[in-house]
Structures are given as structure tokens and as C-alpha cells.
## 1
Amino acid sequence: MKRPRPRPGSRAAQALVTTAIALGLAPALGGRCAAAIAPGDSVAAVSWRSAATASLDPAFLGPALGSPHHGRLETVAFGGHAEIRAAQDRVAGIENPDWISVPRVSGFVLWRAHPRIELAGEATYDRVMDDLVLERGLVDARIGDRWYAHAGIIQPPLGRVNLDHDAPRGDFDGLSYVATEIIGVPNPQLGLGVHGVAGRNRGALWIYELDAVSGYDEGVITRGPSGTRLPMGRDNFGTGGSWALASRIAVRPADETELGLSGLGGAYNPLQLDGRTVDPSHGIGLLVADGRGRCLGFRLSTEVATAWVDVPGGLEGLYAERQWAASSEVARTLRQPLLGAWPSTALAAAVRADAVDYDAQIPGDSKARISASLNLRQVPWSVFRSGWYYEWRRDRFNNVKPAAGLVFSFATYL
Amino acid sequence: MVASPAPRSPAGVSSTARHAAARRRMGWRLASAAVAICTLPLLTLGCGRLLTTEPDPGTRFDQPMDGLSNGELGQFQRGQTQFRRGFTIAEGLGPVFNNVSCASCHSGDGRGRPENILTRFSRGTDLVPGEGGPQLQERAIPGATPEVLPGGVDVSRRLPPPVFGAGLIEAIPDSVILAWADPGDADGDGISGHPNWVTPPAYVPATEPGGGPGLHLGRFSRKAQVSSLLQQTVEAYHQDIGITTPYHPVDNLNPLATGAAAGPDRAPDPELGETHVDETVDYLRMLAPPAPAPWTDARRRGQALFASIQCASCHRPSMHTPPRTTMDDRFRALGDRDVFLYSDLLLHDLGEGLADHRPDGSADGREWRTAPLWGLRIVREFLNGQMFLLHDGRAHSVFEAIMLHDGEAAAARDAFAALPPADRTALLDFVESR
């Protein structure tokens, strides 16, 4: 008797599954999300939260609340995501011996305590922060049909990347300079505020968020070994004692087009030692513009950020008072489905150019980078990336030192 | 048993054929995906430039000397980390300081730029510590007060010098340097180099070159006022960065500040351990000078002119370190080497135009240590295409630097100016190829 003929593509599928299991990433395949969604840019559309609130546009939901989950009980959803990176990184021909790393591991839980009240928590090990951080721990209350109030450890709405930085979503293994060098993503802060949507009755959808957050502390200048570094001063849990206002407004004229403008203004708190104020508080401002859209089959996204820091007297000239960064990405799905048995398998290519100027008042102290990546997604929430980057690092003397790397990474929701 | 015929589609194509076609399509797709995924890495690995290439060791200032043991190379790497380490306020930066790391003044381990210039001041030979001397720290951490230059002091503005080859300079025996000294101009050539005899601080032990009680030959810094590499390093940490060490465990304060001068610098002293200081010192010792450019006919002619117009009377082309067998184990790697530094490490009067009128040890206000010329070949590469020469960086080319010489060097300068243009070009080419 003849054995049943395997369906086309199943051998390839077996190979991919075997590879995934070998990598210890079987949970990625156990996700409960629907398969027939576009890669990369619409993961949130299949989240438990957005399914439960289908009448609302998922765009304004945070990633913890909008992430695909692995498990679900009656009123609780839980999951996480992880990324593993293997790379040959070189700086001026000198190879970094640390060729493998885990840039990010995250676990989250969401509890619907009441039809209008949800509690969300997310803990993350982030290699950039080199710490296990509570990335979210918030209460989100639905006040009206289209707006919410939230409080706790939140992600201030600084650009789209900070709101949407889960590793499996990106086309590249690392975030842009806007995210890592200026904003300091992930950037959880103690805060409270409101967020919601407005408009769209054949017109544009407006998305807004306004929060009071803990902002930045004196680490902006005291912890940066090379001058002003905002990420070194993230006041994650409000210990600094000063508050800032953060807000974002975005317009979405069409489903895949969005323009956003966000900012943060406040003070990095007065420097106190042994209970004694040794320096008064100084102002800090951050402005971020972001946009994304689709044109001729290409997915385009860009983000620009600039920061102002009131540097204490005595540090001017050495510590930057103004910084900026910019990033642009172009991506295109080359083939989907790649495997007939799995309609969501996709091969995509992406290119990114980004730059950061740590001190806009001098010619040097900056970096620029181009990155290219080929991504294979067997499911939208799981990606294998093969990429290359080349970076020009300029010191404060404006001398250039090149750096480059060949990178393989795997990121998946768990 | 006869197999039943395969079912046919309405178009007359068997399902077996369709499955075979589908398998072929799938195979092509997988193959194309695999090729696409692998293309980038293969291209990158195939072309080393895409992953950056290591520069020629002779074209950098931060390379170790050849012939070091694995242990010495490890020490070199640790020292390089310390040299590049930027200090934060939390780690002890300040309270008053000039910059945050060694590397932030010495570009690529070479010389600095005018933005990094240091201001040294005194009243005659009095270093005026009570007024913030001998160095102005114009920056301070929050809560501390930066220093301001007191009125009526003697001021000398000094560009951070290159640091490579310091170990070789340290290894040259006193006798070799003193052999060039001619304080009374006994040979009547108008050049009268003399040594700067200095007393090192008590924390420099006799086991360190240039250390121990008594007078020692100064060979480091612009006026050769420092005899020991350890002293140079410790004082740079203390004065330039505000970092205390076991050798110098008390913070450098602004003595004219009101209130608590230490301000918020609550990092426990010493802020840098002895091990790390030693690593930095050893790193400086093992830094190799860059290789000179290949010889050409023009450069050989320039070399001959350099000697004939008496540039080489102060800028001595080479010296030699002692045999390894005579050296301490710690410094054996520095032994038996030619040192092409183009300096006699002695003090010379360079005239009124370059004078800072600030004595330093036995150097008077018109005297400077002969500046080594090694490394000029690539100096622009680490100064963003520019060149800053002489003690305060006022000369932007070798030509300008020569023309600013005076005093004992006036005759050589005039001889250079009198050369035919082609000879001047050859001489400049020679100097800039070192």
C-alpha cells in the first residue's frame, strides 16, 4: 500500500521546524495567532487585547498590551519575547571576541481585572541597559469608548520606536540610534496620563497620549563617561525627584501611513548628595518626529530626534548641550508565501541609514551607520535575520574609526 | 496488482504531475531564499573591507612595540583600557579638572588640539598651589567652582604632547643625553643645550626610572621638567582629570573657592587603584613610535640638508637604549633599540617669540626641550587633517614651525630660509616623513 504523499513544502517546513526546535525556540511555533497576517508591521493586530477590543484601532495600544501572547487563562494572558545574536563585529579590523549574545529577553503578563481595567507587567533583560528592568507595571483604565487613563511604570510616548520596540518586530537586530543613543529605549518611567484615539469617520485617525513621567535624572551628565548621554540618565522609577511632561500626537490618514510628533520637557533633578543640594535642577528637552508609510511596495519609516540639555556651569564645552539623531528604514517583502504550506512565511529585505551627533556644537563626537538585512519569517512573530552594518565613528577630535559587523539573529515571541 | 490511474484534473493534468511541479517550485523558492540569505554574509566575508581592515601598525600611534611577550601584551591591553577610560563624576572626576580621560586630550595617543590646551601658571619658580597652580582647571563638576587664572602670574599654554615612544625615551641612559649637552657653548656653534635637573616627588621610588631622592635628569614634558613616567602619569590623573591615586590620594581642589571646595566629589579616595595606574604607565612604556615613511631621493637630500644647516644639532636623529642584559626585567623589552626621535631631550633657548617667560625647574622662560619629530608623518590623520606644532600649537605646518624658531635656532632657521625652494621642499618632505 502506498504511503500518503506528503503535501508540497512539508519537508521544507519540517526542516524549518527542526531548526527552530534545535534553537530552543519551539514556543515560537506554539503561538496562537492567526497565520494570515503581513509580516512585521501588523503583529499587534492579532493580540488578545486588540481582539478583545476589536472596535478600537490597535495603534494606540502599547506593545505589552498589543503583543502576541503565548498563553491565556480566563482573564490573564502571558508571553514574552527573546532575541539571540551571533556576530562578527570588528572595529578598525580588530574583532570583538564576544561573538554571541542575548540582547533581549522579556516576559509579560496582562490581567483583565474588570471589563474596563487591565493590569500589565513586563520584565526585560536588556543588554543595552545591562540590567533586568521592570519595563512595564501599569494599570490601564478605559474611561470612555476611545480614551484610557494609565498609571505606573509606563513607556513615555517618545517616538514610535519606544512604544514599539519588541525585538521580533524589527527588521534589524538592533534598534536605531534615535532609540538607543538619544531616547534610551527601553525607557520605562514612573508616570500617569491618558491616551486614546479620535477622528476617523472616513477621515484621519488621530492618536494621542499625554503623561507626567519621572523623566531623566542627573545621570545624563554624571554617568556618561564621554559627555552628555541621555540614556545614562533614565529615571526609571522616579528616584530622581523631578517630573517631566511627555506627549505624542500622531495622525494616521491611511492604515499604513502615520506621522507623529512627540516631546518631553522637564528638568533633570537637582544634584543632591548626603541630603545636600549641590547643584540646582537643569532643564532638558527632547523632540521626536516619526513617520511611516508604504510606497510602491516598500515600507518606509523614519525617525528624527533632537535633545537640549542645560549643562551646569563648569561643564560647558565638554558636555553637549544639544544632540540629535536620525534614522530611515526601507523594507520590502521579496516573497510571500515562501512556503506553500505556510502562507505567512516571508522573505524581506531592509536597509537602514542612521546617524547620531552626540555634540552638535563640535564637528566630531558622532556616529553614522548603514545597515542591510535579509529577514526570513516563518511566522510573523518570529524572524531570522542575516545582516551587515558599517559604521563611521568620530571621536571628539573628529577622527574616523570604522566599525562593521556581520550579524545573524533570531528573535521571536514566546 | 495494477495501480489505478492517477486522478486527472479537468484540464487533463495528473495530480502527480501537479505535485511534482509544486515540489520543483518549492525547491526553487527555498534555493533562492537560501542564496539570498547567504549572499550578504558571503559577500562580506569575501571582501574584508566590508568588515574593516586593521591599519598598518606603522601608521598608528597606539600600537605596542614589537617583541613583547604575551604577558606584556596583556598588560598593554589593560593599560590601553585605562588610558581610554572616561571617568564619570560618580567615579571621581573632578572636583576641578580639564578633561575626562587620557585619550580625550591625546588624539589617538598623539598630540592634542588647541581646544585641549592646558594652562600652566606660576609666579617665577613659585608654583602657587595656594592660588590653584601650577595648572588651571577651568572645568568643575556640579557644585564645585572652576578655577580662574589669578592676576599677575606667569602663564604658559601647552598643547598635550604625543605619548608614544615614552618608554624608549625613559630607557635612554642619562649619559647618552648628557653627551650632547654643551651648556657653555664650548664648541662655539651657537647651540648650548643643557639638561633640566629636577627633583621627583617622594612617591616615585628609586626603583622607577627617574625616581628616588636627589636630582634626576628631566626628559618628559615641554620643558623636560619631569624625570619619571610614573610621575607624569600620576600628575596627569590628578591635575588633568581630578582623579586621586595611592600616589596622590588627596583631591585637587580649587583653593580660591568659597564653601566646601571638594563639592560633590564624594568618590572614595584613592579613586584609581595602584594597579590601574601601573597599567597605564606600562602602556605608555610599551607604545611604539610609528614607522617613518620609505626613503626617496628627495628625502635623502632633505636628510643631508637637515644635518648641514644644523637642525640635527638639536633634533638629534637617533639614540640607543642599553643592552637588554643590563636592564631590569620589567624594562628588558625596551633594551638594545635605536630610538629615532630627532631630539636631544635638552633645553634650548628658542628666542623671545616663543618664550613663555615662565621658568620650570632649571628651564628659564625662553627655553624649551627639543621637540621630538617622530610621528610627524601621520600627525594629520589624528588631528582631522590639521597640524598643530610647537608648545602651544601655533604653527600649522613644519614650515611655520621652523620659521618661528629663534634664539639658538636662529642660524638654522636663516639657513633654511636661504635654501633654494627645491631644497626647502626636500627638507620639509624629509621632516614630514619621520
## 2
Amino acid sequence: MIDIRNSPPADWITSIRARFPTERTVDSALTRKLEQRTCPSEDWTRERDIATGLRDLISRQTPDPFTIRGLRPLSGGASKEQYVFELDWTYHGERRTGERMVLARDPVESIVTTERTREFQLLKAVKSDIPVPPPYWEDGAGAHLGRPSIVCGFVEGVQKPPTGTSNVTGIGVQFDAEHRAALGPQFIDYLARIHTLDVQGADLSSFDIPSVGTTEDIDRQINWWARVWEEDRLEAVPLMNLAEQWLRRNRKPLDFVSLVHGDYRTGNFLFDPVSKRITTILDWELGFFGDRHFDLAWATMPLFCTPDESGAPLCSSLYALDDFLRNYERASGMPIDEERFEYYRIFAHWRAIAMTLGAGLRAADGSKTHQDVVLAWFGGISYPFLESLRQILGNVHFVSSVNGQPEEDSVEIDSMLPKT
Amino acid sequence: MQPSIDLRLRAMIKAMKESIAPAIDPSNQTALEQAKVVAGSLDLIRQQIDYVHWFEAVDVLAHAALIEALTEVDANSVSATIQADAADAKTLPARWQCSLATLRDANNALRESIAGLTADFAACEDPDIRSRVAGIIIRHEEDQLRRERAFVAPTGFDVFPESLLPLEKVLEIPGQFSIKAERHS
């Protein structure tokens, strides 16, 4: 069976861009992905090529002599190639020796295709308020490293307790009560801080920032992920069409513009195993400006829950759902709109499936990443995601929803959590 | 006689776990993680392989039944080609000469048609039709996802244990093609 997505012609790309208008830099990244789809995956991962490109990039940014040492692949993450190295260099007149750095480089395709510039700008915008890897240099066009890349400082920390286990990408990390008590309030506090951060004055030129009272944000978000699904899926899933239509019919105007992290969950922060202090919030590439309820819905998805000692589900392995939401309200001073939260629960599941069953498997199918085997394995998470989406869609009052009428029945949120 | 696929897969898993993974430089965490995932994936394939053909055959029948159910809602919205494709596809599982690739292609074609129909019905003016189609799709997906989840259960991602059944059992459940009957009842 011929799949046009394997070799998308220019007119197909043009039509898909017109069908799904979204943010400028989202459009550019997705368009580049399609235009490169037939390109062979070059073996550009040889360390000497990376070292040459890295040296080239840094030499353009710093006039003083520097030495790169110990360049090697770094584990973790399924979306970007990562390398760690030590740098001897001069920063604002201060000589630094052996400063550990991380190079993150786009694969040809990925489970998430985004512009590195967006991530770089966000890191710079939040670095004085939120613990993040210090951003140093950006090769947004891949002029030096062959593909878009950024260099950040390395931050010490662990993703899970030393004796803990998890599935790939930090899914399924479990914390004991002591860790939960220490990490939970920090996790909530940083989320509240992100959502209420004043980023005026920061260079956010790669973002299209929506206006309150409009549906610009959610329209762009739906189009972003509907486009990803349309471009990348290996097979059709009727539930995805149903969910997309529901999302389009039931969207609401934005009530407050927040910086939204986009992938806020356990697995995407590091902490000091001794002090249990969160040392960094990672993976900002999916960040955008829009509705804070997205991050809440994402962090509390059943697939990101693990059971506590009694078997009760904990959102992001830290809090029972109600505690999570009430603590967030207290920390942020922002109310949670139950209807928006429910809406974003559907959106979050739908987006997750577009990523794991769409983009991730497409990238693996085309041998486009250094983590194809992990992406193929990770595709297995799509079916419980779909089941969760099916349950939520079935629970909302579907008849009134498809009519575009407000929901009349309240939804029992707790009934949607997994029975563990 | 050929060595069984199960035997070969078990040998590969053993080599990966006992010879290859231990020889990886412990500082190369990416390679170590991938070796673990390769061993897990081989074991997953080993558990799936006897059921792959059966799985695809059941999928074909379920998709054909779904198209019939959508046709009953509004025959004018389902083209004669799609109806004929569904009828043809239903005959595939009974043919022993039918390859896995043929079943898979038939499934993909039916899925595409159903996705298109779902989008068309969702844009339909008649709220009753929209709601009936939504109900049919959600019901269809319940069975479909029960099979899909059982198929990949060894990955360990599933969080709905009460509805996660053994693969053989979900493939045998006779209720898979009962959408029409349920709707009439």
C-alpha cells in the first residue's frame, strides 16, 4: 500500500500547511521535516564530526582559546542526540577548567520535531527564576553541527531514587513517602512559577503569543498536532479523528496567557539524591504560550501515575489528583477551571498519541534517529493512552458535546484514574 | 524442518543478555539501555508471534463490521467502493493462502476509510447521526484497544489492569463484531 507520507510531494506539503495553520516556527520545523523525509539518514554521529562541528560553533562564539575534552554520548531522552563534554574556556573574563556541558542535536526526525531556537529562547527567558540547564550557544540552522543544536551547561542530579526503576524516558518512576514529601512541593511550586512568570523583555521572537479572550492558542495547538498526526501516522485511528473534532467543537477562549512547559512530569526534572532538592527542570522544547491547564492535564494523566504504598494512584508519582490540583491553586493563586481541565485532559491524551503512535513510530520506521529501538518500544504506550482517551471521551456527555453545547454533566475525575 | 522462530528468538535474547550487554562499556549508558530494550523487544516479539496472523484477521473482521454499522447509520455517506472493500476484506481471514502483509494492507485500507468516514460524520449537520456514529466508534475502539493493549502488554506501560486480558482470550471473545446487534438492542 502506497503511503504518500513516505515521500511527500511539494504540493501535498503546501496543502497540509494551508490546512493546519500554526505558529511560524512550528510550521518551519514541520515543513523541514517533510522536505527531508526522503533524505537518507547520514551517519553523522561519528564523534570526530561532532567534535569538529562543536569546535567550529564555539570558536564563533568566544574569542578566547578553549579546549573540548571527553566528548561522549549521553544517555536519556528519546528525542535528541545528546553528548556530554568538558570545556576549558573563559567566560566573561573568568577562566573555567573542565566545565561540563551538554550538546543536544536534532536527529533527522524525532518523536517531537521542534525548532531549537524556541527551546533556547525559553531557557534564557526563565533561567533566573527556574532551575534550568544554563543555555550557552545555539546552532539553530545546523550550520556547524549539520543539524539544529544547542549547548547548555550540565546540571548534576538524578531522575529517580538510586534504588528506583523505571521504563524508558522516565515513565514509571516511583518515589517513597520521604521523596514525595520533599519533591512534591517543589514540583508544584516550580509549575506555578512557570505559569505566572513575567517574561516581558525576554527575546521570544520565535513564539506567536496568543491574546486573552481569543482561541488563537488552542487553534494553533490543535492544528500543530493534527498536522503531526496527518503527516506522520503509519495507520489511521478513528478515535483520533473523533477526538480532534470534539476538541475543535468544544474549545474556549483563553482566560490567561501562561508560559506552558509542555512536558511537565516526573522524568523531566533532576534532583540531588542527598538533599532531595530539584536541581533542574528539563525538556523545554514543547514549551508554548497559552492555557496553563495543559500542563496540569499532562502531569496528571493516568499513564504518568504510579501507585503509592496502598495502591492509590499518584499523579506524576507525587500527589493524589485532588491534592495536586489544590496545592497548585494555592501555590499559583490561579483557579483551576474544571471544564478547561477536562478539555485539556482530552487534548493531552490526543497529543500524546500523535507523538508516540504518530511521530515516534514514523521516525523509527524511517530509521531517522539514534533511538529507533527505544521509539519502537515506546510506541506500546500509545494503546493505554488511547484507552484512557476513549474512556474520557465516553464519559463526557458526548451528545451535547458534538452539538457544541456546554457540558451539563460534571465528570467524576477520580473515576478516570487507573486502578492500581 | 526449520528451527522454530521461538528457538531462534530465545537464542538471540540469551546472547543479548549474557554475552553482548555485559561486554558494553558501562559508561555508555545509551548502548546499555538499547541493549536492554532490544532484549525486551525480542521477548515481546516471541510472545506475539504466534498470534500476529490471528490478530490481523480479527482486526479485518472488526473493521469490516464497523463499516457495516456505519453504513446502517447512513448508507449515502459510505461509498459503494468502501462497502465493497469491506465485503472483500471479510473473506481474507478464511483464505489460508493469505499472507500477513495482505491482511495488514487490507486493515490499513479499511482504517483509512473509517477515519475518513468518522471525520465526515463528525462534520455532519444532523446531531443524531453524529452522536450515533460517535457511540459506535467508541464502542468499536473498546474491543479494538482491548486487543491492542493485550498485544503490547509485556512493555509494562498499561495502567488499566481490570480490563487488560490475556491476548488469546481477547482474540477469542465473540463480542468483537457485535456492534450492530448492540445498537439494535
